[in-house]
Amino acid sequence: MIGVLTGFAIIGVVILVGYVVQRIHVLPADAAVALNRFVYFIASPALLFTVLARADLSVIFSSFLVVTIVSVVITAAVFLALSRLFFRRSAALTALGTASASYVNANNIGLPVAVYVLGSAQFVAPVLMFQLIVMAPILLTVLDVSTREKVSIGTIVSQPFRNPIILASLAGLVVALLGIHIPDQVLAPFVLIGGAAVPTVLITFGMSLAGRRLFPAGADRREIIVAVAMKSVLMPVVAYLFGSLVFQLDAVHLFAVVVLAALPTAQNIFNYAFRFNTGIDVARDVVLLTTIAALPVLLVISALLAPA
What we know:
mainly alpha; Na+/H+ antiporter like fold
């Protein structure tokens, strides 16, 4: 339990710092925009490259990855179906809602939980890899294409090659696949810059909460509530069912895959919404509510599934 509480204490304190910074006007009113661009174009690419370049591929390409993919696909498909039937939002907002319901916080909460609860940071690698290499490119492509006034086939095809986050993730995976050893002295600047990504995203998120309330005017409460329910309940249930009944994972690995599926929605979703100036209220509320809900959910999972 200490690991779960530690992870949430860390993220909560940093978000609070951002909130206070905005409330007392330490930075200019539009500072969040500049910070967001720094994260999107510089800090996040550096972080993702170093994480994937050092990843253990034997852990990434395992049954963990299969169960992760299944839980993500089913959760996303359920939300997408409900969205098309009842919410009828634009392509960009539908994509953000779907990602909010299925994209987990594998980094700033997932890593502490993996280390302190599961015993190894490697458990989070399959989730992180799948989100960076598959989910993020799809989401960013939809957002980029649907928020442009004019779209061509060339724009769609070239989008992944113009996105710094996707390029950095692919570069890191190639390094890991080819077994290329990058000297620590060469990686050091990337590690240093990448280290700014998580706290900056959290501070920006905290700044966005100042003067705001949950379910602001114009936000679809049904969409937010459904996304929170999908992420906090459906996704870990799907992971448990497939991990236990289909793949028959042992107790340690079943516990790990369910815990990771129960992580809250990643702040990256808010970061992407902010970057493309669409669905910011929905993304912020889902991130906040799933973060609040994740603590009791993870405590219940730990009580029921944690190996003796």
